[in-house]
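Work Package 4 report. The design task specified in the project plan requires that, given a folded chain encoded as structure tokens, an amino acid be chosen for each position. We show below one input record used in the internal validation round.
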């Protein structure tokens, strides 16, 4: 059978006709290619293989399934088979760990077996025995990760083997280029050059917005050619808004979701059933679990599985196997399935909600029909008019391959510190000038100056990592442990289980960053589409209760959300302006991949906004006052709006002397004023009075005071070796930490990291300048009702309503009652001491002893044997200890309550943290109905969770 991306021997002319790039390969290689089904090159192979054969450094850009791996391997194998193998490692194949899937390894190992070419894999989980074998008998090709390359560079034996490297292939180079893993790899390749001399560099990449930037990342100061083909030969993208119908009401009631949510779920199910194999992409892990649970609740035989990074590798691999064998028809997944995992013939990709970036949608839709000559087909299922506008812009940009620019982190001091120590481990002494030269050859450090380098060196010296004599560096003993503990730049993020106190069961998890920077007792947040209030935070879990209204809540997975770029937000603004003036419906449908339903929806959305307020566009800012809030309607994208919000809120807070609250999405900022009245004129005046030159200094001051900065400082300090990697942030005073590291490279690096990851100062400065100059028109509107454009940020604020029951409190009480009724209790007769164990639901309304008929029954925990023993001692006339007297008194009080209130008393005593005295207070209120009693029980449970840490 032909590989993905390869034409079958039966479908194309056999050799003997026009020559192609395969025809000059060494005969043994051509024979192996025939056995594998490689009869005719794909477009990217035709274009890139000649460049690779010439020995040039090359960046190969093309879609999944086009045989990019063979673009690199075949010319290398051809050259080695002609020239002969060496006794060292000739080829280094580097890929992110999650890209090292079984399919990729099988493909490469197949070529090795066929051509007598020894291939081995080495990463963090490689057994020690296998590592020893590699040190004694190195393979011809070593497949590894960026982190493992760091690990083997200082080893004397492996360095000898690496001296033979002539080719380095970097797979998924676009993914590595944009974070610190890539920065680390870029310097590691220069360290490898010091060992092996110059080698050929081949990067394999999905479509990127800045090929020249990724090429520089791959080659450093060397020339790199770019071989690129269109990502889509043929593409079908459609944006849909499922309109609720009569059947959706039945689905909604059955699954306890809203009708619009039911309509979306129904549409996804229809699309899965209409196709052979469907990937359903979502933007967060939470949403993957939510959709999966709803599918299973609706239909256990739906044939839809779930796949995301928080699941174990065993679960993920099983899901992939079942999907590939067509045992299941669909997989709900996150970015975990964006890479080239071979999961068979995918004929449709569904994107649930806007993908937020064109690069995401291209990568995801490219998973369908990616074999040569097939159509890549995708459907974006949207949740509201805002989502439709965003998705249709991204669909247009996707079809035109208008990808977001690639930004490579530069001058990362923490990575530099690790590389300096690595160089000191490789040699007994290293000159600072040589470290500077090696680092500068890599793209991320091209502009590194000697002053910054020496600041980092002095920091390492102060931590006893290295010894500095003038400009000569030597390692200290602590260097070894620091280096090998910090091979990965990815922070070890703890996850906290979220426990719903109503059901006493886990509902998901929160990242440590969210808990450290946003979570406090009383914070309301959203996860899995529902709003929750934090009652208490323990060592590894967060105790929560559901809340009826999600207003004011923040997404629990906020850190996961993909930022909407400035250019996408601006085009959404332009689209709003076009809809005001009327559009050509046919042109809109074709250009933006929407239908009549979607066009009518967004047209009504924009027109209704015009009737109630004013319409913000790419060239118009609207400041809308509503009660104590001002909604800043600006189409500037996630990072630019976050930056503007930080600056304006800081200046307003200084003016008021009290905090001004903010919420941000790509198209709006909500400012909440402390004095209870919204002041749009004050926001506008603040912008006009602001000196653009002061924006960056203000931003730096503001960010240094945030909990986000202090949290990130912990991770940077760990990467620097200034803190142990296993230190628990909860045992650290973040304020004190910030004071200790102020004016150090750690401090500066933390600020640089946040400015790159979370903010966009350049765009914010551009927007502020355009407002001040009048290039951006401004309008102030005061309204007595929430306008359509304001509703998304005030009501939903970035979370889905997929599980929003129509009567949340009724549902909460129903769940609470089920839990209490399911609790096991022991009723102990105070007359004959007969113990009766049962569930609360099995208790009669007016219970009596089965043995003697007494109504005086103590309600105890099932495992409580001490109370029964204390009662027996009292009956015998034995002397009781103080603790035993307490047990007898409590049992007597519960017996009085059961005698008076019957089953209600037992249900109340079964609740968390409610003892006899509290139960007596609750029951004495003489509730008119059971729901009122349950509400009181719920309030007492929440009070207990909040206050129990203060108890003795």
């Amino acid at each position: 059978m032909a590989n993905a991306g390869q034409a079958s021997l039966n479908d194309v002319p056999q050799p003997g006709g026009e020559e192609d790039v395969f025809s000059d390969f060494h005969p043994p290689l051509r024979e192996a290619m025939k056995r594998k089904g490689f009869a005719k090159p794909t477009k990217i192979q035709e274009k890139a293989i000649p460049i690779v054969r010439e020995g040039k450094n090359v960046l190969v850009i093309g879609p999944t399934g086009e045989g990019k791996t063979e673009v690199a391997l075949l010319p290398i194998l051809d050259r080695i088979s002609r020239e002969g193998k060496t006794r060292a490692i000739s080829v280094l194949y580097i890929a992110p760990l999650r890209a090292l899937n079984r399919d990729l390894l099988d493909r490469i190992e197949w070529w090795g077996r066929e051509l007598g070419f020894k291939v081995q894999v080495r990463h963090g989980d490689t057994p020690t025995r296998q590592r020893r074998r590699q040190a004694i008998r190195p393979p011809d090709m070593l497949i590894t990760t960026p982190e493992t390359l760091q690990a083997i560079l200082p080893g004397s034996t492996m360095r000898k083997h690496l001296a033979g490297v002539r080719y380095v292939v970097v797979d998924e180079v676009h993914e590595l280029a944009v974070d610190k893993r890539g920065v680390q790899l870029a310097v590691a390749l220069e360290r490898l050059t010091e060992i092996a001399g110059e080698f050929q560099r081949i990067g394999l990449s999905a479509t990127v917005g800045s090929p020249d930037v990724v090429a520089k990342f791959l080659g450093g100061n060397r020339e790199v050619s770019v071989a690129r083909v269109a990502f889509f030969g043929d593409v079908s993208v459609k944006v849909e808004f499922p309109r609720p119908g009569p059947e959706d009401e039945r689905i909604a009631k059955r699954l306890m979701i809203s009708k619009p949510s039911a309509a979306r779920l129904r549409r996804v199910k229809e699309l899965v059933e209409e196709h052979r194999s469907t990937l359903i992409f979502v933007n967060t892990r939470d949403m993957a679990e939510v959709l999966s649970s709803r599918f299973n609740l609706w239909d256990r035989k739906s044939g839809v599985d779930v796949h995301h990074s928080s699941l174990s590798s065993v679960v993920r691999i099983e899901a992939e196997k079942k999907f590939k064998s067509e045992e299941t028809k669909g997989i709900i997944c996150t970015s975990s399935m964006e890479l080239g995992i071979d999961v068979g013939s995918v004929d449709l990709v569904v994107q649930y909600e806007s993908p937020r970036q064109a690069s995401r949608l291209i990568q995801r839709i490219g998973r369908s029909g990616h074999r040569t000559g097939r159509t890549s087909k995708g459907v974006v299922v949207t949740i509201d008019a805002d989502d439709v506008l965003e998705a249709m812009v991204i669909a247009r940009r996707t079809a035109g391959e208008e990808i977001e620019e690639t930004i490579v982190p530069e001058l990362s001091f923490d990575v530099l510190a690790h590389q300096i120590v690595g160089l000191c481990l490789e040699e007994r002494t290293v000159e600072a000038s040589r470290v500077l030269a090696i680092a500068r050859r890599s793209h991320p450090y091209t502009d590194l100056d000697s002053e910054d380098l020496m600041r980092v060196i002095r920091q390492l010296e102060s931590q006893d990592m290295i010894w500095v004599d003038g400009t000569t560096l030597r390692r200290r003993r602590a260097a070894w442990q620091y280096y090998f503990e910090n091979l990965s730049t990815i922070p070890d993020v703890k996850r906290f289980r979220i426990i719903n106190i109503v059901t006493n069961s886990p509902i998901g998890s929160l990242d440590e960053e969210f808990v450290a920077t946003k979570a406090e007792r009383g914070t309301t947040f959203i996860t899995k589409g529902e709003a929750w209030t934090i009652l208490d935070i323990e060592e590894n879990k967060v105790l929560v209760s559901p809340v009826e209204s999600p207003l004011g809540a923040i997404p629990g997975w906020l850190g996961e959300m993909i930022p909407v770029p400035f250019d996408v937000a601006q085009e959404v603004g332009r689209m709003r302006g076009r809809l005001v003036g009327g559009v050509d419906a046919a042109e809109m449908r074709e250009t933006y991949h929407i239908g009549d339903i979607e066009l009518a929806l967004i047209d009504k959305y924009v027109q209704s906004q015009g009737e109630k307020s004013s319409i913000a566009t790419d060239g118009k800012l609207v400041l809308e006052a509503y009660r104590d809030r001002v909604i800043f309607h600006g189409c500037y994208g996630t990072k630019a709006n976050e930056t503007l919000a930080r600056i304006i809120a800081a200046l307003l807070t200084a003016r008021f002397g009290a905090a001004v609250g903010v919420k941000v999405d790509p198209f709006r900022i909500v400012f909440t004023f402390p004095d209870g009245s919204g002041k749009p004129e004050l926001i506008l005046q603040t912008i006009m009075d602001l000196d653009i030159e002061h924006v960056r200094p203000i931003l730096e001051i503001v960010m240094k005071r945030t909990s986000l900065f202090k949290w990130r400082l912990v991770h940077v300090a760990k990467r620097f070796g200034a803190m142990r990697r296993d230190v628990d942030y909860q045992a650290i005073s973040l304020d004190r930490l910030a004071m200790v590291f102020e004016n150090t490279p750690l401090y500066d690096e933390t600020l640089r990291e946040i400015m790159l990851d979370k903010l966009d100062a350049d765009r914010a400065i551009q927007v502020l300048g355009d407002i001040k100059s009048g290039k951006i028109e401004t309008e102030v509107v005061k309204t007595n009702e929430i306008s359509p454009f304001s509703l998304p940020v005030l009501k939903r604020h970035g979370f889905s309503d997929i599980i929003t029951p129509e009567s949340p409190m009724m549902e909460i009480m129903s769940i609470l009652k089920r839990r209490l009724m399911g609790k096991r209790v022991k009723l102990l007769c105070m007359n004959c001491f007969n113990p009766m164990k049962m569930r609360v639901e099995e208790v009669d309304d007016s219970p009596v002893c089965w043995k003697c008929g007494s109504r005086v029954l103590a309600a105890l925990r099932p495992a409580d044997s001490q109370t029964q023993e204390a009662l027996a001692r009292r009956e015998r006339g034995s002397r009781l200890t103080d603790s035993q007297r307490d047990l007898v008194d409590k049992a007597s009080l519960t017996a009085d309550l059961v005698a008076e209130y019957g089953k209600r008393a037992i249900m109340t005593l079964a609740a968390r943290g409610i003892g006899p005295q509290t139960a007596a207070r609750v029951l004495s209120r003489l509730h008119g109905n059971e729901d009122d009693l349950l509400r009181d029980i719920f309030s007492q449970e929440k009070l207990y969770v909040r206050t129990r840490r203060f108890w003795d």
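The chain is about 45% helix and 15% strand. Validation will be extended to a larger panel in the next phase.
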